Amino acid sequence: MSSPSPALIHLQGITRSFQNGEHTLQVLKGIDLTIQAGEFVALIGSSGSGKSTLMNLLGCLDRPTEGEYWFRGQATSQLDADARAALRREAFGFIFQSYHLLPGTPAVNNVELPAIYAGLRPQERHARALALLTQLGLADRADHRPNQLSGGQQQRVSIARALMNGGQVILADEPTGALDSQSGREVLQLLQDLSAQGHTILLITHDPQIAAHADRIIEMRDGLLIRDQATGSPQRSTTQKKAANIPLAAQPPRPAQPWLDLWEAFKAALTALHRHLFRTLLTLLGIVIGVASVIAMLAIGDGARYEVVDRISAMGSNLLLIRPGAPNQRGRWPATLVPEDVEAINAQIPHLIAAIPELSRSMTLRYGNQDHTSEVNATSAAFPLARQWPVAQGTFFSQEDEAQLATVAVLGQTVAETLFADRSPLGEYLLLDGTLLQVIGVMSPRGASPMGQDQDDVIFVPFSTGSVRLFGQRHLRNVTVAVADIEQIEQVHQAIFELLLARHGVEDFQIRNMASLIDSVTETQNTFTLLLGSVAAISLLVGGVGVMNIMLVSVTERTREIGIRLATGARAKHILQQFLIEALAISALGGLIGVACGLGTAWLVGYLGTPVYFSTPPVMLAFGCAFATGLIFGYLPARKAAHLDPVRALATE
Ligand code: ADP
Ligand code: MG
C-alpha cells in the first residue's frame, strides 16, 4: 500500500484452511475487504459460515493460509509472534460471546490484564480499570468474581477489558448471543457509544435487528462475502454521547521493565497456586521430603565420618606404627622386631619425638582378694610423650626404672577404678603372675579406641620388666614412632623403612602411617555418605517429576486461561515466564521448608545421640537442586503453554 493514508484494515485474497487428518477444510475461500478507521461494521451470516474464523484473523489471533492482511498499511505476514501480540495488546480489544474472563479473579483484575502486558504501572492500571468499570456502571462490582456476576455484567467487564489499552478496534464475536434482551440492548448501546467516540467496531451477530444499528453490514456465506452494504442508519449521528469519555488512550509507552514483568508473573503464580491449595501442598510435600532427606542424610553421613576420623586423630595423626611381619603376612606375630631396632631408630632418625617399643599381653592382676584381667603393656618412659597421654596421678616410670628392671606399674583409669574404687592406688602393690609391682601412677582417661575397645583397661610396666620378668620374651609386638612435625611424616616413614631394611636384610616389618589410615577411613565413609546422599537425591528427583506432573495438569486445565492471556496481548514469553515461575515458586518454597525440616531432623537425630555434622554445602546443594528441579521440570510444561495456539486455547472448555 502506497497511498498516503492507508486503510485501517485491508484484506486481499484471504483463505483459511484447516487440516483435519486427511481432509482439508477450507473455511475462508478468498476474502477481499477494506475497513476504514471509525467504521461500525456488522458481520452476519449463518452459523459455520466462517465469521469467527475471519475475526480471529483480523485480531491477529490466527494467520491466513493464503492472501495478505494489511493493518494500517503494514503487511501482517511480515510480523513475528511478538509483534502480533503487540497488536492484540495495543490495537485490538476482543469481546466474546462467552465473555472469557479469568475464573476466580476479581472483575477489576480481569480488566487490568491487558495493561499488565502493556507494562502499565500497577497504581495507574488499577485506577484506570476502576474508572472503566465505573463508567460501565460496575463500580460496586469491582471485587466480584465472574461467577458472582450476571451475564450482562460479565460482558460489561469484558468490554472494560477490551478498552483497557485503548481498544481502537473492537472485535465483538456475538457479544449479545448469551444475554437476555435487556442486557443485549445495553451492550449494543455501549458499542454504539464507543463507535461514536471513534472506535472502529466489528460486530458479529446473526440478529438482523442488531446488525441494523451498524453503519455497514457484511454478510458471509460458506466462506465468502456475499453482501457488503451501507445501512444509512441514522443511529450514528443521533447517538447521545452519554457514556463518559473514555479516552482513546495514547499507548502507554512501554519501557523495558523486566522486574515489573517478573513481579506480575510471580503474583499471578501465587494466585494460581493458591487456587489449588491442596494440590500445591501435595506437590510441595514431594520437594520437601526430597530436600529434607538430602540434608539429613548428608548431616548423618558426615557426622559418622567425622566421629571416626576424630577417634583416629585422637590417637595421634603424627604416629607411625611399625609391626613385625612382611606386609602380606598373616597369623601370629613373627619374632622379627627387637628392642635394638627401637634404639637404632631413636639414635639415627631425625625429626622424632620418640620411638617407643610396645609389648603387650592380657594377664590377670590380683589386689588383695580381687582379680582383674587387663592388658599389660611393656613400654618405655617416653610413652606419655609419644602418645600424648599424660599421667593423672603420681608419675610415669623413668629410664632408670627401665634400666633397673624396676617392679613398678602405672594404671589405666578403668583398672584403678575397678581395683581401688575411691581409694588412691599410689604406693599399693599388685600381684601379677607371681611378681609384685608397686603402683606409682594413674593415667588420665582416654576413652574408647576407634575399634571401640576401652583404652583405659590397661597397665603399663617398664619394657625391661615386662620382657624379662613377666613375659619372658623380647620380641616386640609393636613400635610406635611419634613424629615431631607432621609435614615430615613421609620422609621419616621412608627413612625408618630404609633403616630397618638395612638392619634386617628383608622386609619382615610393616610401617603404617596414621595420616594415611585416616585418609582411607575417610574414603570409606565418603562412599557411605555418597550412598545416603544418592538415595536422598533420588527422592528429590521424584519430587521434581511431581512438579512436572502437576504443571502439565495445570497447563492442560488452564488452557482457556492461557488463551485469554494471549488474546489480551500476552507474548509467548509472558506465558512461559508465568508457568516457569509457578514451578519455581513451588520448588523454592518446598526447598526452604525442606531445608528447615532437614536441619530439624538432623538436629533431632543428633539430640538422640547419633553424631551429626552440619555444614553449608549440603544445604546449598539440596536447595539448589530443588530450584534446578523446578526450572528443568517446569520448563517443558511452561513451553507447552507458551506455544499454545491462541484460537484453539480459547476454544477449549
Ligand atoms: P461461525 O463463527 O461463522 O459460526 P466459524 O468461523 O467458527 O463459523 O467456523 C467455520 C467453520 O470452520 C466451521 O465449520 C468449523 O467447524 C470450522 N472450523 C473452525 N475452526 C476450526 C479448526 N480449528 N479446525 C477445524 N475446523 C474449524
Ligand atoms: Mg462464531
Automatic annotation (TrEMBL):
Keywords: ATP-binding, Cell inner membrane, Cell membrane, Membrane, Nucleotide-binding, Translocase, Transmembrane, Transmembrane helix, Transport. Residues 9-247 form the ABC transporter domain. It is found in: Cell inner membrane. The keyword Cell cycle does not apply. Pfam families: ABC_tran, FtsX, MacB_PCD. Belongs to the ABC transporter superfamily. Macrolide exporter (TC 3.A.1.122) family. It comes from the Bacteria. This is Pyoverdine export ATP-binding/permease protein PvdT. The chain crosses the membrane at residues 281-301, 530-555, 579-606, 618-638. PROSITE patterns: ABC_TRANSPORTER_1, ABC_TRANSPORTER_2. It is a multi-pass membrane protein. InterPro entries: AAA+_ATPase, ABC3_permease_C, ABC_transporter-like_ATP-bd, ABC_transporter-like_CS, MacB-like_ATP-bd, MacB_PCD, Macrolide_Exporter_MacB, P-loop_NTPase.
